[in-house]
Write a sequence for this structure.
């Protein structure tokens, strides 16, 4: 083949498209945004991408809970998870977002935000004075909503298999519309925990996870354990879940979504330094999960002579919760150790709650409350801007507020609508009793 003869043809083939489309290329170049908008675009993109990663955690919670409850209660857990997410979206729009981020419009300065609905930018930013140095309001609202919904998902699993649907959803409305955004404003909205205590909680070990844990603990104490879980002598009867495949899938989905949970909490992607920090957060988040899972595997082998999959799954989640308060400053080794402590907490906290006869179906209280407290306390170990006094005081303030208000709401619901299904309905299963449908109808006895 004569390659020299082909050379002009090759050159023409390469050059002609450029010439033909030169005008279009110049038009495209003209669409390059002004430099002051580049950071706005990148930050908005960060919120949107990491926000839908956190949204996918709703599927993770659904699968985890569906796998850890008995087959007669699976449909109810799926119903609660899709309903609570929908309620959270509505209540966060109506009141939660501006309660959490009031700007200068505090009802009580530093304590109670503004009672107003969220408002997005106009279409195309027309006639707007939007500050283009940060990110769009729509992207920020979307991202922050996902954290609010996550808090409610934590409560769902703990109270599974014996709570009525509508009282649970009413509590969810109060939690997502009032309890969560009010306490979150104290830190992330510039409230008194941030201003006066120097509280540091990067992505929400306390602000999100322990809040869900405190609400779940109050509900579990008031609701009581499932029938047959404990006898009068204190003996614990295991009530195994229906599908460990789903539970494992849910854990991996949550693990993946957590990269958005922590990575997006960097809040900025407008410089090389911020992008490098986001990468570091991803790596440390993964290390925390791995540390929690491995230590749970090793400890259950030592304690029970056989490894326990459900403990390993919750160990991974506890590692993720533990590293959430500060996923940026630790080294990979420190992040792994922080996660390992979280996994250790779960292994010992689950039987501890059983000794107290506190029935937590999916282990959410050890994972989200106990590991969330640990992760918040661990922040000063790697971040010199935090103090143990500030962290402890903030944990106590949030805990007392959330637990007391949650308990009051649970007690009110119990005295009015009733919280618990009847014994007959609980034995039958909530799928049939409350919803009239089975998740696995081919295995139904009727």
């Amino acid at each position: 083949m004569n390659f020299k003869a082909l050379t002009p043809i090759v050159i023409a083939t390469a050059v002609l498209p450029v010439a033909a489309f030169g005008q279009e290329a110049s038009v495209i170049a003209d669409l390059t945004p002004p430099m002051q908008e580049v950071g706005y675009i990148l930050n908005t993109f960060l919120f949107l991408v990491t926000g839908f990663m956190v949204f996918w955690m709703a599927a993770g919670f659904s699968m985890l809970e569906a796998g850890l409850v008995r087959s007669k209660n699976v449909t109810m857990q799926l119903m609660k998870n899709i309903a609570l997410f929908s309620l959270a979206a509505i209540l966060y729009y109506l009141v939660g977002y501006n309660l959490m981020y009031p700007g200068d419009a505090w009802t009580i300065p530093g304590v109670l935000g503004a009672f107003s609905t969220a408002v997005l930018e106009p279409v195309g930013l027309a006639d707007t004075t939007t500050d283009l140095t940060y990110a769009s309001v729509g992207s920020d609202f979307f991202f922050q909503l996902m954290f609010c919904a996550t808090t409610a998902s934590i409560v769902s699993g703990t109270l599974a298999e014996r709570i009525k649907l509508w009282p649970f959803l009413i509590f969810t409305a109060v939690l997502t519309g009032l309890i969560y955004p009010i306490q979150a404003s104290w830190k992330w909205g510039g409230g008194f925990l941030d201003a006066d205590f120097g509280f540091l909680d990067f992505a929400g070990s306390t602000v999100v996870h322990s809040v869900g844990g405190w609400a779940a603990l109050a509900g579990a104490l008031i609701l009581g354990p499932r029938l047959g879980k404990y006898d009068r002598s204190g003996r614990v009867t295991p009530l195994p879940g229906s599908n460990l495949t789903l539970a494992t899938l849910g854990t991996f989905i949550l693990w993946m979504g957590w990269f958005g949970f922590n990575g997006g909490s960097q809040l900025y992607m407008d410089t090389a330094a911020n992008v490098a920090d986001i990468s570091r957060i991803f790596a440390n988040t993964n290390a925390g999960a791995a540390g929690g899972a491995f230590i749970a595997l090793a400890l259950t082998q030592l304690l029970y002579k056989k490894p326990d999959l459900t403990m390993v799954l919750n160990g991974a989640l506890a590692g993720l919760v533990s590293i959430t308060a500060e996923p940026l400053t630790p080294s990979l080794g420190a992040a792994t150790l922080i996660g390992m402590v979280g996994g250790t907490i779960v292994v010992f906290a689950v039987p501890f709650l059983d000794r107290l006869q506190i029935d937590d179906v999916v282990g959410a209280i050890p994972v989200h409350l106990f590991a969330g407290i640990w992760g918040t306390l661990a922040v000063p170990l790697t971040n010199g801007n935090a103090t143990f006094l500030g962290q402890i005081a903030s944990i106590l303030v949030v805990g007392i507020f959330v637990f007391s208000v949650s308990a009051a709401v649970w007690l009110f619901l119990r005295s009015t609508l009733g919280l618990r299904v009847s014994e007959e309905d609980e034995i039958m299963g909530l799928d049939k009793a409350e919803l009239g449908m089975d998740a696995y109808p081919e295995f139904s006895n009727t």
User: Anything to note?
Assistant: Residues 1-29 have pLDDT under 50 and may be disordered.
